[in-house]
Amino acid sequence: MSGARINAYLICGGRYHDFDFARLELLKILHRHDRIRVRVAENYSDIDALNQADFLVSYTCDVLPDQRAEEALQSFVAGGKRWHALHATNSIIEWTAGGKARSPRKAQTFMKVLGSQFIAHPPVAPFRVHVTDPGHPLMSAIGGFEVSDELYLSEMHGPNHVLLHTHYNGKAQDGFAEENWFSDEARPIMYLHPVGKGEVLYNTLGHCRGKYDMQPLIEEYPLVERCAWELPVYYQLLERGMRWAARLDD
Q1: CATH code, domain with 128
Q2: How many structural domains compose the chain?
Q3: Which of 21, 141, 225, 231 is least crowded, fewest Cβ atoms below 10 Å from its Cβ?
Q4: Res 24 pLDDT > 80
Q5: pLDDT digits (tens, 9 = 90+) for 30-67
Q6: Does 140 reside within a domain?
Q7: Which pLDDT does position 1 carry in this prediction?
Q8: Taking Cα atoms as reference points, which of 237, 236, 227, 198 lies closest to residue 75?
Q9: How far apart, in whole angstroms, are the C-alpha atoms of residue 154 and residue 61?
Q10: 198: β partners
């Protein structure tokens, strides 16, 4: 029905990021639409809240659903709903005895619903983002752009319709267990991933970190990192992603 209420479920929480900043920015975008009402959580444990939502938005790091929640997420999307997943939603981080960050291949139902699993990234540095499918409505009037952000090196679980990509051929940042990424293949930055009757829109950009966000590893982080959040084009992509997830333009 035209003008009907749309229920959003925002999951924002985890480790090593400024979730206060990301949560506020995402809520401000959602608040622009008077039909959208938002419920907020830090993890996937409230399955009843998930099932009451019309669409899902996530900005997390190392937050994993248990098996029951994994199955609920799969059913949520497969049943015809949409999930706008951001940045480190697809991460699992464990530490080896040698102090390396590794990405164990578990929670594979979760990762296959998302269409990828984060493995590593090079140091935050500028890189060029290319438009893979300029004809897609989500990419209308979006050109290539330069961004300083975490460039995600991921294990992909297709089929994925890539909208934005970059290229990287080299090593990951020191500290990741899987460090060698020597390949000329394109690295997806933003893609659509079908699941049954529904779909996931994944955007890997948007790292943010503040003074206290690396505790207990580091007592005070020396930088405030905002990365893609400093670019108007990133907010344009987020706005379009929210409209897509809420089916405002269907």
Answers
A1: 3.40.50.880
A2: 1
A3: 141
A4: yes
A5: 999 999 999 999 999 999 999 999 999 999 999 999 99
A6: yes
A7: 41
A8: 198
A9: 14
A10: 195
Residue 1 lies in a domain: no
- Determine, yes or no, domain membership for 209: yes
- Give the Cα separation of 180 and 233 in Å (integer): 30
The single residue listed with the structure tokens 């140091």 is 123
* Residue burial 19-55, b: 16+ Cβ < 10 Å; e: rest: bebbbebbeebbeebeebebeebebbebbeebeebbb
CA distance 139 to 142: 5
What six digits make up the tokens of 62? 């190392």
Cα(155)–Cα(157) distance, integer angstroms: 7
| Alpha-carbon torsion, ordered 207, 117, 44, 164, to 10 deg | 50
| Mean pLDDT rounded to a whole number for the chain | 97
Label residue 3 by pLDDT band (50, 70, 90): confident
Interval 117-132 mean pLDDT? 98
Structural domain harbouring 136 = 6-246
